[in-house]
Amino acid sequence: MARKKQEVDFEAALEELEALVERMEEGELSLEESLKTYERGIALSRACQKSLDAAEQRIQILSEKEGSAETRDFEPDED
Q1: Which residue ranges form the domains of the chain, and what is each CATH number?
Q2: pLDDT at position 37
Q3: pTM (two decimals)
């Protein structure tokens, strides 16, 4: 029987990742706790990247349906 993968809520994963980084930056974790926290952080980071990739793909598909398949790199405003 195949196990159903649970989708990760991007905002919740990002919030947890930020909390893990904050805990590690405090420097109060043991080596073992640091390793477990780092491992969890990597998993959350990968889940967030996967969500972002899926969102980008959906946007590209929608853009193609609308006839504007032109893509360009994001260039933030320089203030």
Answers
A1: 10-65 (1.10.287.1040)
A2: 96
A3: 0.69
